[in-house]
Design brief:
Helix content is 50%, strand content 10%. By secondary structure, it is of the alpha/beta class. The chain has 2 domains: 108 residues, 3-Layer(aba) Sandwich (Rossmann fold), CATH 3.40.50; 83 residues, no CATH class.
Length: 208
């Protein structure tokens, strides 16, 4: 059986619900919106047992996984394994891929969900890769240099940076803080100077 899909990014929940509804019959509202709990895994197993028979496969949506407790994430992983050969299709989502435990990331296929159709992997180039490397090594001067060089298309630069951040960074507080600040800038108005300030602000506290 194919790996479950883990949608991630600004529109992850929306895309997970949309795709799930197109693939089968939704048998529950999305699970975990208020914070994924260990009991949610038991609920998923219960739903799988009561899904019944119909023209379409039963489907559910679960997330956000980047906000799940370690215990809840471990319980969900076991549930995914136990139900892998059953009829129930489970679609997962997270705002921030780096916040999802590695065991779930390694057992799922990932689909990036940008805030608009113009935000795609085409934005990931050597500049956004370089900005990520400078950010990861806390090289403030390099961060400023790259953003200044690309000031005319700073949003494209940050869009690419955001994708690299989501794929590569750890679950550090700095990474999560940066993700939220960059996402906020890209969803609204700003400038290359504001973008530089936002990134430099996350360097002050180090990588913890």
């Amino acid at each position: 059986m194919a790996s479950p899909i883990l949608f991630h990014g600004p529109l992850a929940r929306h895309e997970a619900v949309t795709v799930a509804a197109s693939k089968g019959r939704m048998i529950s509202d999305p699970i975990g919106d208020g914070g994924l709990k260990v009991d949610d895994s038991r609920r998923i197993v219960s739903l799988a047992g009561m899904s019944g028979i119909g023209d379409k496969r039963p489907v559910i949506v679960v997330g956000p996984l980047d906000q799940a407790t370690p215990e809840a994430a471990d319980a969900l992983l076991k549930t995914l394994e136990d139900l892998s050969e059953g009829p129930l299709l489970i679609f997962l989502w997270a705002d921030y891929l780096g916040g999802v435990i590695g065991t779930i990331r390694s057992r799922t296929s990932h689909q990036w969900c940008p805030p608009n159709k113009g935000w795609t992997s085409l934005f990931v180039d050597e500049h956004s890769e370089g900005l990520y490397e400078a950010w990861a090594s806390s090289d403030a001067a390099k961060v400023m240099e790259i953003i200044y060089q690309r000031q005319r298309d700073w949003k494209a630069l940050l869009q690419g940076f955001c994708e690299v951040l989501a794929e590569r960074s750890s679950t550090s507080k700095r990474a999560a803080k940066t993700w939220l600040q960059v996402r906020h800038l890209l969803d609204g108005k700003g400038s290359h100077l504001i973008a530089a300030t936002a990134l430099l602000d996350t360097l002050e506290g180090g990588a913890s």
